Amino acid sequence: MNQEHALIVEDMTVAYQTTPVLWDIDIKVPTGVLMAIVGPNGAGKSTLIKAVLQLIKPISGTVTIQGSSYEAQRKKIAYVPQRGSVDWDFPTNVLDVVLMGRYGFLGWIKRPSQQDRQLAMDALQKVGMEAFAQRQISQLSGGQQQRVFLARALVQDAEIYFMDEPFQGVDAKTEQAIMVLLKELRASGKTVVVVHHDLQTVADYFDWVTLLNTQLIASGPVADVFTEENLRKTYRSTGKVLQSEE
Amino acid sequence: MLTSLGLDYTLLVVSAGSGLLGLVSGVLGVFAVLRKQSLLGDAVAHAALPGIALMFLLTQTRQTELLLLGATLTGVLATGTIIAIDRFSRIKYDSALALILSVFFGFGLVLITFIQKIPTANQAGLDKFIFGQASTMLVRDVRLMIWVTLLMLGLTVLFWKELKMFSFDPGFTEVAGFSTRRINALLSGMIVVAIMIGLQTVGVILMSALIVAPGAAARQWSDRLSVVALLAGFFGAVSGLIGTLISSSITKMPTGPTIVIVLSLFTLISLLLAPNRGLLWQHLRQRKNQQMISYDKVLTAIHELAMNHENHQHTHAMAMIQPSKNIAGKPSKALQAAVENLEQRGLVRRNEDNQVAITPEGIRHVNRHLVKGDE
Question: Keywords of this protein's UniProt record, alphabetized (chain A) (predicted)?
Answer without folding.
Answer: ATP-binding, Nucleotide-binding, Transport
